[in-house]
Amino acid sequence: MEENLDGPLIAQWARRAAAGLRERQAEINSLNVFPIPDSDTGSNMAHTMSEAVSSTEASDGTDTSTVTAALASGAVRGARGNSGMVLSQVLRALADTASRGPVDGKAVARMLQQSVEFVKTSIADPVEGTILTVLRAAAEGAQAGKESLSDVVSHALASAEKALEYTPHQLDALAKAGVVDAGGRGFVVILQALQDTLKHAGDTAVRKPEEVHSSAISEESTNATPQAAAAPHADVVGANHELEIMFMFDYSDQPEALDELRDYLDNAGNSVVIAQAGESLAKVHVHTRRAGAVIEKAFGLARVFDLRLEVLPDTELTQAPIIALTPSGGAAKVFEGAGAIALDLDTMDARDIDDTLAMFGAGPVTVLTNGRRAAGLLDRGHHIAAIETRSLVGGLAALAVHDPSNDFEDDLEEMADAVSAQRCVETTAEKMIPELQSLLQDGGELVTVLWSAPEVTEADIQRVRAWISAEHADVEFHDYRADGMGPAVEIGVE
Predict the structure, then answer these.
(1) Which pick of 194, 274, 382, 388 has the fewest CB atoms within 10 Å?
(2) Where is composition skewed (Basic and acidic residues) in this entry (predicted)?
């Protein structure tokens, strides 16, 4: 079995991965429920990998650095969706690794770890239970492998598969749908393709993947104006629609432009991913209801090209919505994953609040205060029922019993009762177990931990999980990473 990935073998792996994604496209699409249930993760990953493969056709297929650089360039430029952006960063890490020497087992392990770092840098608010979780597990598994290439890949694949199966325990949207993460499933397909390539090295009969088409609207906009770029959607998109916007951003003449754009997008949308494609070139991805403003801002900062817009599935609400007041960042993503609409009132003015409430029409809205200032929302004259959840874990307790099929008033009562029954505390990484010992003295069936890095690490959470398993085996344990939430840890016991 091969012990180095050379140019031809890497190209063969890429073709096999693209073909595998194409074959499993429908399966992966069916798993796509987070962050938007638009059933296109399989299509996006297959398209991104196909674009990467196409970029190698004009390159020297024998030179490892040339092949990997072409794969990375094609993937970044052709990336679609969150998952495609993540995939492009894995191939970017591969290219960087290949530029430093032979791609053996140790190099693949380093490449996977570098992929994690690239992706973490690209994603504004990483969420556990997604492709990032599966990628990190693969990197950790690779470190446990021996020096041989085949053993490293085998360990990485096994760890990724195990992490994929656990994703429903980390993301409520997956648990409710009874599925694993779609992007994580696609990444496992790619790792499986690498293992198969090593087993069948020399087999050049892997077919070229078919082009994956999309119904999305594309716009070659190097010379376009912001108004022209947005025009195709002017009579299609209403106030209750969200758009996916992707474009290349060349900031070589404005070095500070990327940071300014990143800060703007953090407040103007969600699912923000900014993937480096070069020293002063990036691929930008965002979901937003403010498409015109986002496009105008980007054009005003630097050179924008390859602009692509896609209308996301209709998000008009048929049930009374739940607004969760949270800080921006990881906590917001946790609540969005649980089905709430996360708002950070500290970043919103009166017009932003009115625009948000207008989306819900005249119907009632439930607000989980989560210990945050709510006056700016409650005094807007809308039919709002506030539940005084004094902590973020209290808000999660309310969401856990929320039943949209219930009568509105009955549902409010159920959520308020769940909050009242919960005992909670803010603490630090060092004091988690002592605090749990105290909280569980009076009994409990469920422990929920919200934690923020870097104050808390994965190792800290693993120690708590092991302690719960050993000392309170009948207690259910859930943890959610919520970087930037304020306190290092919030613990709730019910």
Answers:
(1) 388
(2) 204-213
pTM: 0.59
Angle at 75 (CA atoms; ends 69, 77), nearest 5 degrees: 100
Question: What is the chain's mean pLDDT, rounded?
Answer: 84
- Rounded CA-CA distance 90/11 in Å is 15
Cis peptide before 434 (omega within 30 of 0): no
Main-chain dihedrals φ then ψ at residue 369, nearest 5 degrees:
-75, -30
DSSP 279: T
Q: Are 456 and 488 in contact (CB under 8 A)?
A: yes
Q: In which element (H, E) is residue 283 found? A: strand 281-288
Longest Cα pair distance anywhere in the chain, in angstroms?
70
What is the rounded CA–CA span in Å between residue 162 and residue 145? 16
Angle at 417 between CA 413 and CA 418, to 5 degrees: 120
Name, in order, each residue with C-beta under 8 angstroms of 25's C-beta and a sequence gap of 6 or more.
Answer: 42, 43, 46, 212
The answer to whether 371 and 390 have CB atoms below 8 angstroms apart is: yes
Residue 485 identity (one-letter amino acid)? M
